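For concreteness, we quote verbatim a single protein encoded this way:
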Amino acid sequence: MSRGTSATGTRLTLDLWHPDCWAIQATEDNPGGILAHAVYDSPTSGECSVNSLFTAYGETESEVEALLDSIDESPLTETVRELHTQLDTRTDPVAPGEVSREFFLEHDPTDMICPLLLEHGFVHSSPGRIEGGREYWNVRYAGERGDIEDELASIEKQANADIDIERIGSVGRETRDANRLDALTPSQREAFELARERGYYEWPREASTRELASELDVSKTTLLEHLRKAEAKLLDP
């Protein structure tokens, strides 16, 4: 049997809330946030709890401590086992904030929405982020794009959840765009991503070339040259 190489499916970023979730409750009451990585142990016979790996993060150690205390005190959680603290996460592309701490948590997996997402065909492609009382999941859906709204509506009904699609796009397009971004030099990519982030390509423009050049500490002429070359590579058919 031959295996096709064409990219199929849809990528989405989901912004959601659901009741009776220890992570949502903890981040509603505390600054910082939580990254949900993976379930390590499946429930054993006669038991409903699992051990999962998470990262708590914040701007200070005290913020992370307060967040972990809130998780530990929740009636929805069991054993919290802290692993290690990272005092500067700026070199870590995964964990936001200045301080992060990994921990294993024994809990009922049905308190999390990720098993229900998987049941409906939404496979997470990166750690889920819980912050400010909301969950954010980057997922892939391999079914028909027209079925997405019905599947999400079913999840909302089953979990009494509120789900918004923050971003949606084609998996094939994402791969192509990523390859084109890789063709940029570091300076071109930095200038282009800053311009996009600051709204330079919005209409009306939300940032001027002078402001972007100042932020990058380069001349306006240099900035425009970086953007011109980046645009030529990205827009080339």
Remarks:
- The two ends are 33 Å apart (CA to CA).
- The chain has a mean pLDDT of 81.
- Helices lie at 22-29, 61-73, 114-119, 148-159, 171-182, 186-197, 209-216, 220-235.
